[in-house]
Amino acid sequence: MMQTLPHVVIVGAGFGGLWAARELAGAPVSVTLIDRNNYHLFQPLLYQVATAELAPEDIVYPVRSIFRHQKNLQFRMAEVEGADFNAKLLHTSIGNIGYDYLILAVGGINNYFGIRSVAENGLGLKNVNDAMAIRNQILKSVEMAMQETDAKVRQALMTFVVVGGGPTGVESAGALSELLHLVLPKDYLGFDFSQTRIILLQSSNRLLAEMPEPLSKETVAVLTRKKIEVRLGNPVIDFDGTTVTLKDGQTISAHTLIWAAGIQAASLAGKLGVRQARLGRIVVDPTLQVPDHPEVFVVGDVAYLEDNGQPLPMIAPVATQQAKTAVANIRRLLAGKPPENFTYRNPGVLATIGRNSAVAYFGRWQFHGFIAWVMWLVIHILRLIGFRNRLTVLSNWAWDYFFYERAVRFILHGPCDESDKLLICSLPDDTK
Ligand SMILES: Cc1cc2nc3c(=O)[nH]c(=O)nc-3n(C[C@H](O)[C@H](O)[C@H](O)COP(=O)(O)OP(=O)(O)OC[C@H]3O[C@@H](n4cnc5c(N)ncnc54)[C@H](O)[C@@H]3O)c2cc1C
């Protein structure tokens, strides 16, 4: 029976793919959802995994559990390697999969803007592995600094550079400051945390460019109060693992560089023979269809569509709204109707700068301080998937808020190889 129904294949179980799959519940189609991971990741809280506030399990949710009751959907864990749009066929790590309609929602990857040394020695923040690598690096740096006798090396170990003045960079720097100034000093008695330096670098002259200027200035003021050095208008051009070099020639001795400066389209976008725009995003029609392939829709970070002459931002509301339009258009095509154009409704922007402090911008309305922080907390808790996740995240936040404690502080030992970014290889290995 199922085989006779039109087959909709969705690639990616991120915000776009998940919302599209949910919208298809009860539709007269069979749905196959494909992702290389068996979970949905709530990326907006990744920085809290990186700064030891949450465990990875708190912000991921198994895809199979989400769709346990959706009878028309099957999930396949697989890597999509390419496609033949003319034959309506996907090439995947588990074989070819045919489709009648395809929704591509493969998101993005870190973008180092061609700075190879930063890609090799810096730490991006895009997935669970990235967040764990950052957490290991921070905790290991403090352990190593505590034992270091050379003052210069100790200072470099305790210098943390965050690159990127968007919400992710601001949030990471704020959380890092609280970890290093409020939480860890309780456990490292006798160690002088006042030598800690956190430097937030932004290539342009303003933080949080999507917010009005007064909120950007407020953000700089709050970060400065949190002992974070904010440096604007001076891009990073090199990082060799111990020295960060800026465009004007200045250098910073630091062992940790967290890269929160950019995202580009997932690599699959470049393997499909379709037109790509800035950042490798796939150019789509206003209906979200790929030109000349009306049965292929692209949504989320990987889709390139302009709104008022500007590319739509790579944020979750764009992905979820586009997913709904793509599904509505598939339903229209099935009913013999023409597809409709996508219209973006901007729900506003929020960024938290740490305890009791955030900035929020909703069109005519601007908020900062405690009220914006409460808004941020409520919105993020509501958006998290799974009651259990909401409960554990809330209890972790409450514990941290009242007791200045972060639960997830173990250093995970990884395999030692040349690309190891976790500084683990310097530990003696007595497990062999
Ligand atoms: C650290 C961080 C913080 C953020 N904070 C915010 C925020 O506060 N607010 C906000 O609105 N947005 C935020 N964003 C952006 C937001 O997460 C993205 O815009 C959103 O996830 C895009 O949704 P998507 O469905 O396009 O892609 P994603 O959610 O990235 O999902 C893509 C999925 O595709 C899968 N995939 C990719 N390639 C393949 C392949 N070849 N084969 C199989 N599967 C594949 C991936 O595993 C992934 O599950 C943040 C992003 C990051 C990295």
Q: Which fold name corresponds to the CATH topology of the domain at 116-261?
A: FAD/NAD(P)-binding domain
Q: Which small-molecule ligands are present, each listed once?
A: flavin-adenine dinucleotide
Shape: globular
Mean pLDDT: 93
Number of helices: 11
Structure summarized in a few sentences:
With 432 residues, this protein is α/β, with parallel strands linked by helices.
Task: Break the fold down into its secondary structure elements and pairings.
Elements: E1 7-11, H1 15-23, E2 30-35, E3 39-41, H2 46-50, E4 60-62, H3 63-66, E5 73-77, E6 80-84, E7 89-92, E8 95-98, E9 101-104, E10 108-110, H4 116-121, E11 123-124, H5 128-147, H6 151-157, E12 159-163, H7 167-183, E13 197-202, H8 213-225, E14 228-232, E15 236-239, E16 243-246, E17 251-253, E18 256-259, E19 263-265, E20 282-283, E21 289-290, E22 293-298, E23 303-304, E24 306-307, E25 310-311, H9 316-334, E26 349-354, E27 357-362, E28 365-369, H10 370-383, H11 387-403
Parallel strand pairs: 1-2, 1-9, 2-5, 9-22, 11-18, 12-13, 12-18, 13-14, 20-23
Antiparallel strand pairs: 3-4, 6-7, 7-8, 10-19, 15-16, 16-17, 21-22, 24-25, 26-27, 27-28
Helix pairs in contact: 1-9, 5-6
The structure holds flavin-adenine dinucleotide.
Flavin-adenine dinucleotide binds at residues 11-17, 34-37, 43-44, 46-47, 79-80, 105-107, 125-126, 167-168, 266, 268, 300-302, 314-317, 319.
